[in-house]
Structure formats: C-alpha cells, structure tokens
Design brief:
The structure holds 2 protein chains of 2 kinds. By secondary structure, chain A is an alpha/beta fold. In chain A, 42% of the residues lie in helices and 21% in strands. In chain B, helix 4 runs parallel beside helix 8 (169-175) and helix 5 runs antiparallel to helix 7. Classes of the chains: A alpha/beta, B mainly alpha. Chain A: Keywords: Signal.
Chain lengths: 272, 232
C-alpha cells in the first residue's frame, strides 16, 4: 500500500516534468563561448521581452552542437565553424545559414613566454616556433569550432602537432574553459576565442601572446534547424529568434554587450 | 579556500533565488531518482538474496559490476534513447528534469539492488530456519526481510542518493545544463569551473556538501527516533 502511494507520487512527478511548456520555448544548440561569456544572459531577456519566446541554451562544443542539431535535439544552431555549418545546411539539416557576428582568436601564454612568441602577429610563424621549441601547447582536441580552426592553422604553419601529442602537444578533449584551466596549470600556450578569454576569471600570470593576424578571424553563424528534416522543431519560434538576432535590434544588442569595458562580439549580419 | 567558504556563507545568507532554484532541482531530481531506484532495487535485491536459481552467480557478478557504471556512459545511453532521432524521441523528454531522473535512476538502481541483496542475504541466513518452520512463501519471506532490514536499507538508499546528487557526467548530457530548467548543483559547479570562477565553483561545492550532510542527518534522526520508539 505504502509502496503504491510512493509509486503514484513518483509517476506524477515524472509526468509533471514531461509537461513543461512546449510551445513558446526553443532550444538553441550553441557553442560554449557565447554562453560562458555571458552574451545570452544579456540577449535573451531582451528577446523574451519582445516576443514572449523562452530560449533554452545547451552550450557544448561546436562539433557536439552540430551533432545534437542533426539528431533534432535543438531548434536553432549557433556555432562558429563556417565550413561545417555550410555542410549542415547543404545536407538538409538546416534551412539557411546567416553570418551573425565575429571576434577573433588569440594565443595566450605565461609571462615567462618559453617559446618567445609574445608580441608576434604572424600566427603561423608563432605556432611553428612553439613546435620548434617544443614549448607546451594545450589543444581542445574536441572537434569544436576553436579546435577545427587551430588544426587548420597548424596545417598552414606546416607543422603536424600530432607527432608531439602527449609530449609538448597536449589535447585535453574538453571545453574552452577546462582547457584554459589545464593549460594555465601546466604552463602551456592555449588558443582561445577573445570573448572567452576576456571573461575568464582564472588568468593568473597569463596574457595574450599572439593576436592581430587576419587568419585568426572568428565568424559566428546562426541556422534554424529544418522542419523538413526534424518535424518536431518549433520552426516558427526558431525563425523568429534567428531573424531577431540578425535584425537591427538584435545586432545592436550584440554590440552593446561588454565585459570589463571591452566589446566581445562584433555584429556583421548582412543588411536585412 | 577560506574565501570560498565565506562566499558560500554569503550566497546562502543572501537567499539568492537562482541558487535556491538550483538546490531545489538537485534535491528533486536526485531524491526522486533514489525513490524510483529503491522501488526497483530493493525488491530485486531481496528476490536475488532469497532465490536459488541457475545463473544466480552470474546475476550477482553483473549486479555488483553495474555499481561501477560510469555516469557519462549512462548519460550517453539515455541521450541516444531520448534524442528526437532515438527510439523514445517522440516523448520529448530530452533536456528535461525527467530525463535527468531517468539517467540517475539507471545509475543508482544497481547500487541499491546489489547492496540490499547483501544486507538481506545476511539477514536471511539468520532467519532461514524460522521462516521454513512457519512455511512462509517466497513473497512473504521477502516482505518480512525487507521490513526487518529497513534501517540498514535506509543506509543503502543514502548510498544511492549520495552517488546521484554528486554525479555530473550523466545529467549534463541529458539535461543540457539549461539555466532555470535543468541546471543542478554539479552542472553549475562544472560551468563555473569552466568560466575560471574557481571561488564560486568551490563555494557551490561546499553548499552541495552541506546539503548532502543535511539529508543524511535527517535520515539518521528518523532512524534513531524509530529505533528508540521500537524499544519503549
């Protein structure tokens, strides 16, 4: 008898959980930098105020976000790996991709600067020198947007870091923040997007060593998940969100977001 | 460390509504998972304890081995099932507290089953002859043993709860760590760590420890009150 009552109560709890507001909420599969830097905390209340749509953000690496969206576990994809995003749309998973905003990648390193790359603006040269000196470098190693970018920069630099894997090249297989924590812990250079770096709280004696190369450009894009591929998506609300982000109001809101008096993301959606 | 302790006290005293929401969700998810895991695990453990059947040893080994289920693997399996493209995707449960409860239940039911099996088997060894002389059926035996071992089984439940409330690998995959929806203590700690806010992460960790302490103290006091009354 007792067990029956408990069982019924449990079942009720389970069902109550399933009945959460479905209609006016969407799930955004997002890269971590936009979430960890606090951008969504700034944008979403403005958007919700205007439209009444609740936006739930799942912040994972770009690779995982794309995979999750392919599995129909999100309504909107907001990531930063243009070739993968275009492939996503090409394959019919997304309706269309729009440039949203940009910032840039930087390489941060310890004050001691063991590879002597501080102040360099040629990223390929800096990477080649790090590899040459065998200075520690912590990589995401997780197929995220930042990782894909880093791999392409190594290729451009003519270095195969895999040869030093486990030696000077340390692949953490984790998110940007975790990789920064690990890299700083071991005195390694780390490539990060500027937004995550500015809002990161555990910098210790680390500063930006390499920046300013136009190859370090970091473009973010937004893609509503295709209702044809995923009938379960909330297509209308997803489109509303994507449209708002690239609209004048959305772009202004993105530009207005600062941390420590520094703008983190620069809107560059094509004029509507 | 002291800074984190101070921050923890400050957070609790400020009555921050976000913190309260996260704490309550942690408790709701992990306590529900513990109750469901007990509903499954206790009878299962008891049946295996008193049962004599072929392949029993294999069942014991599997049950004990499943105590070591890695949370991230459980999370992944539950994700694959609840994903919109998975077999149970039509339920729309991914990224809800329900999904987190399911994952934690799978994680701790084997712990409850394996530990209660041991407790009840030991007790059964003591009473086996008595039960035989009373001609009890298997079901009656199981009921009597479960009731008699209830205080030890509370500890078994607590072991399951401890594992559930402390894990992050499963809930972060199936819950998604969504603010105001599926963010619990452990995923909040993981998030603050990845933001490099180690002080806040540690402060949340301290609060989680205190909550676990509170739940254990509450169960202990129930148990002591009950035992005292039993001997009046």
């Amino acid at each position: 008898m007792q067990f029956k009552t408990i069982g019924a109560a449990t079942l009720a709890t389970l069902l109550a959980g399933a009945a959460w507001a479905q209609d006016q909420s969407i799930i955004v599969q997002s890269t971590t930098s936009t979430a960890n830097s606090g951008l969504y905390d700034h944008l979403l209340p403005i958007f919700q105020e205007e439209t009444g749509i609740q936006v739930n953000v799942v912040a994972v690496g770009t690779g995982q976000a794309i995979k999750n969206a392919e599995n129909c576990d999100g309504d909107v994809l907001l990531v930063h790996a243009k070739p993968s995003e275009e492939a996503f749309v090409e394959a019919g998973y997304g309706t269309s991709r729009t440039d949203l905003m940009y910032n840039d990648f930087v390489i941060v390193g310890p004050e001691a600067d063991p590879a002597g790359v501080s102040g360099m603006t040629d990223v390929q040269g800096a990477l080649a020198r790090i590899a040459d000196q065998g200075a520690l470098f912590a990589s995401r190693g997780d197929d995220s947007g930042t990782h894909k970018k880093e791999v392409s920069l190594w290729t451009d630099a003519g270095v195969d870091p895999a040869a030093g894997s486990g030696d000077w090249y340390r692949e953490t297989g984790s998110g940007m923040g975790a990789t920064l924590n690990a890299g700083i812990g071991m005195g390694a250079y780390v490539m990060t997007d500027r937004a995550t770096w500015i809002s990161f709280d555990n910098k210790q004696d680390y500063t930006i060593a390499v920046e300013g190369d136009e190859d370090m450009f970091n473009q973010y894009g937004v893609i509503p998940v295709s209702p044809e591929h995923c009938p379960s998506v909330n297509a209308e609300a997803a489109q509303t969100f994507a449209d708002w982000l690239v609209s004048g109001a959305g772009q202004e809101a993105i530009a207005a977001y600062t941390v420590a008096d520094q703008q983190l993301f620069f809107p560059n959606a094509p004029a509507q | 460390m002291m800074d984190a302790l101070g921050l923890a006290v400050q957070l609790v005293l400020s009555g921050d509504p976000d913190l309260l929401e996260i704490v309550l969700l942690s408790l709701r998810v992990s306590l529900t998972a513990t109750v469901v895991a007990c509903l499954i695990g206790l009878p299962l453990g008891a049946l295996v304890a008193v049962g004599r059947f072929t392949g029993r040893n294999a069942v014991l080994i599997v049950m004990n081995a499943l105590m070591g289920l890695p949370p991230v693997v459980v999370g992944l399996l539950v994700y694959l099932h609840l994903s919109r493209s998975g077999p149970l995707g039509f339920l729309g449960l991914l990224y809800t507290p329900t999904a987190m409860i399911i994952a934690q239940t799978i994680l701790i039911a084997p712990i409850v089953a394996a530990l209660s099996r041991q407790v009840i088997e030991d007790l059964h060894a003591e009473y086996a002859e008595q039960f035989r002389s009373l001609c009890l059926t298997k079901l009656q035996t199981v009921q009597a043993l479960l009731w008699d071992a209830r205080y030890s089984l509370l500890t078994v439940g607590l072991a399951g709860f401890g594992r559930a409330v402390a894990e992050v690998g499963a809930v972060i995959i199936v819950g998604g760590n969504i603010d105001h929806l599926t963010r619990v203590m452990t995923t909040a700690i993981a998030l603050e760590t990845s933001k490099g806010d180690l002080g806040l992460a540690l402060a949340l960790g301290i609060i989680l420890l205190v909550i676990a302490l509170g739940v254990n103290a509450a169960v202990q006091s129930v148990r002591m009150t009950a035992v005292r009354q039993a001997y009046v």
